[in-house]
Design goal:
The chain is mainly alpha-helical and 196 residues long. 45% of the residues lie in helices and 3% in strands. It has a two-stranded parallel sheet with strand order 1-2. It is extended, with a radius of gyration of 23 Å.
Length: 196
Amino acid sequence: FFFLIMVAAFTANLTTIFTMQSQSSVSSLTPDATREGYTFCGERKTIQNIIEIYDIGDKFITDPISLGGDGLPGFDCPNCQARSRVFEMLNPELATKNDASGQYCHAAIAPLEDLEVLQKEGEHCSKRAVGMPLGYTGVGFPMFEGVSKELIAFFTEQKNAGVYQKELHDVMSITRCLDISNEMKPLSIEQLTGVW
């Protein structure tokens, strides 16, 4: 009896591990995803450097003229929410089914915070961030040299006082989407046997 339970537990756990491995195989941007014929969505200002670096401008879907766009790669329509349109058009099933309209994509290139904000509102819960960032953008603002020392001192005091960390914590996204990552962990022997 004990042997039967152990074999059943081992088989179930092994099945879970194999299922997890097959679900976690994700194509990298280059060359696998492009070789597999993936199309990509993205806001135009986000994807400009990616297009130049990887030379994949033809893999990005165009901003649909019928939805107020200009027909160029990436979303940049003046009267729409280009950052959320990225996720609205991210639908691998529709993109694969000979998408005659060319509106849907297999994968999106977008800032993680865009997805976090939408999931905070309970939207696009089926979408997940995969892979490492493809690039980083530095942003700053010019300062008049006459006040730069005072501003640097002020910002340093704010940082040391924990003001930035507190503000970041206050606006951190708490998603309304269920976390499915915990459901995918293999079960332990104790959990499978039900004895403990």
